[in-house]
Specification:
Order of helices and strands: HEHEEEEEEEEEE
CATH class: Mainly Beta
Number of domains: 1
Strand order of the largest sheet: 1-2-3-4-5-6-7-8-9
CATH topology: Lipocalin
Radius of gyration: 21 Å
Number of helices: 2
Distance between the termini: 86 Å
CATH architecture: Beta Barrel
Length: 244
């Protein structure tokens, strides 16, 4: 017993050091990582959890998926956020096509900038989350984060219902929880959980994987004033070939 007690005492300084160790630095530009042939499976994003909507939301959701599939078969695309020049917002902005995101990390805040549409969100560190009724609904809501060891846990509320979530409906009371961590020195995973009891039968979780971009990569400006897409009277996305 005495030996065990001495062993525990010996580990106390080490445990204290680990507890107060500096958090990892996510600063840099990260490109979407989808793996591919020969890629290490442990770095790929795991499969998402089942999406289970309440019946009154599931029916229109499935109808929309059927319409999209039919349009794709015709070589067309239905009206979307991009064509309408509407911000993607949280959490969709964290993964848009092939466009990267940039993390700028300080002791009190992590700023995340998406190259697509130049969207910006701010994650305030070690602050209490506000009450939902005190957050003005918007595209990015209010995000607060805390470190759990080497994982950044981000809580976001205040996303207005019109913000697109991969076509998934949601209410104003939706809560988004992210667990962001390095799974390798140059591979970052963002596990995103959407919790919305008003719409979902159970929380929906998916993960976005990123790979660190070269240190000299410069984010480019991407705004919608040069967008050449428009939506015709049938709700189909078209491309303007000539300015009018």
């Amino acid at each position: 017993m005495k030996t065990q007690a001495l062993t525990c005492l010996a580990w106390l300084p080490i445990a204290a050091a680990l507890l107060h160790a500096a958090p990892p630095d996510f600063t840099g530009v990260w490109g979407i990582y989808r793996g591919g042939p020969g890629a290490d499976p442990q770095f790929r994003a795991p499969a998402p959890s089942p999406l289970v909507l309440k019946p009154e939301y599931d029916k229109p959701y499935q109808a929309r998926r059927t319409e999209e599939a039919a349009a794709a078969k015709r070589g067309e695309q239905l009206a979307n956020t991009s064509a309408e020049c509407i911000p993607y917002g949280v959490p969709t902005m964290m993964s848009v096509a092939i466009y990267p995101v940039e993390f700028i990390q300080t002791a009190k805040q992590i700023t995340i900038i998406a190259e697509a549409f130049s969207e910006v969100r701010r994650v305030y560190l070690d602050r209490p989350q506000a009450k939902l009724e005190d957050v003005a609904p918007g595209y990015y809501g209010r995000s607060v984060g805390r470190w759990e060891g080497d994982t950044l846990v981000v809580d976001t509320i205040g996303i207005k219902p019109t913000v697109t979530l991969r076509g998934i409906p949601h209410s104003a009371s939706m809560r988004v929880t992210e667990r962001i961590r390095l799974v390798a020195p140059d591979i970052l995973h963002d596990q995103i959980t959407i919790d919305d009891p008003a719409v979902l039968e159970k929380p929906y979780t998916y993960t976005v994987a990123y790979k660190r971009m070269p240190a000299d990569y410069e984010m480019v400006e991407f705004v919608c004033d040069n967008n050449r897409e428009y939506i015709d009277s049938n709700g189909i996305v078209r491309l303007k070939l000539h300015d009018k």
